[in-house]
Amino acid sequence: MTSKRLWVSFVLAAVTLSITFSLQPDQQKVLLVSFDGFRWDYLYRVPTPHFHHVMKYGVHVKQVTNIFLTKTYPNHYTLVTGLFAENHGIVANDMFDPILNKSFSLGHMDIYDSEFWEEATPIWITNQRAGHTSGAAMWPGTDVKIHNSFPTHYLPYNESVSFEERVAKIIEWFTSKEPINLGLLYWEEPDDTAHDLGPDSPLMGPVISDVDRKLGYLIQMLKKAKLWDVLNLIITSDHGMTQCSEERIIELDQYLDKDNYVLVDQSPVAAILPKEGKFDEVYEALAHAHPNLTVYRREEIPERWHYRDNSRIQPIIAVADEGWYILRNKSDDFMLGNHGYDNELAEMHPIFLAHGPSFRENFTKEAMNSTDLYPLLCHLLNVTAMPHNGSLRSVQDLLSAAAPRAGPYGPYTQSPPLLQGRVPPGENEQEASYAYFLGVSLGSIIVIVFFIIFIKHLIRSQIPVLPDFQAEISQPLLQA
Question: Which interval of the chain is the signal sequence (predicted)?
């Protein structure tokens, strides 16, 4: 009878532990998609049935505040690190690092020096360090060796590779014998065309429609591969776009001697490196040069931009008002559409939509920050977040009731050190995380204790019972 009771106790303890561990999320699959330069209001410019399908059966955030400056590489690195540009180090598409004495240029595709990227750790490396696998189709930075690592699978950047080919690779990696749990997919439109035409051009309608068709193709392929219902799809972009005009040009040659400075990055935020001994002359010449140009010494850059504390940010930056264009002179290249302006401007804001088992259905949220995506990704992937500037608490209402919701970083992601701009997590959120680990620990202890008792009982049950006469022999001693 005692043996049966022990067996029952042992089984109950094992069930208790299994229930405790079943509270952790299943291994989630996440596909992060960026349509470069897809401005938030493009969703309503022309019919976009596939985007609206995701919105109806998933979640949509109306206003996404990206980081300054609102350029491609800084914002794509923010999406996968959760950091402001001053913290992750990719402060512009074109940079000069005075410590390394090296340059970085998207325009010349001189972007492969690992040292520029290693002030942060992107999500694919964190995911792989946790024992998982990642796949990237042209996402900026994924073909760069960062901290001695590439994604498990990746495509070297080649703009001529079609969207359909990129999707095929992503599907292949998600359905292989050793499937990835994180995919990243990038497409250059509508950014490329909007630079040429300007976002206000009627010709942008067909471009937006084509991006919507491409999303429809992705959904179709995910359904065909039986991934649509089990994968968390996140659709976003890096920035918006604003209309420019040749009547709104600021020519630096009208105010500066070109021999006194180096123009590291151009419109709409001119990054200016004065020659030795020329700082004051350059600054004074630009400070009040044009009513639509605001000039800052690096230490005077507004704190809300989080764009000050990095040596790659040049000693002087000149920021154009929305729709204004900075050139050395009118012989330089000019584009009818541009971005990079103040990240508070609505026309700089991107999109955010998501669909999948972890997300709510037909839910609209008013606002989020692009830095919040990274802790959300870590939460979904069940990996420990690196220090970041985001907040899972700010976007946790996007998650379905079935998704784990224990704390701002999830039950399996530690609370990272607070960086500039972070809001400290609430005590109740931290306690929720502690409660989970306490539950797991207690469940483990219970099973171990019962296992030891069970083993002891088995051992004792194998020892022959001593004959009764031994008890009789000892009896006189007891009486004495």
Answer: 1-22
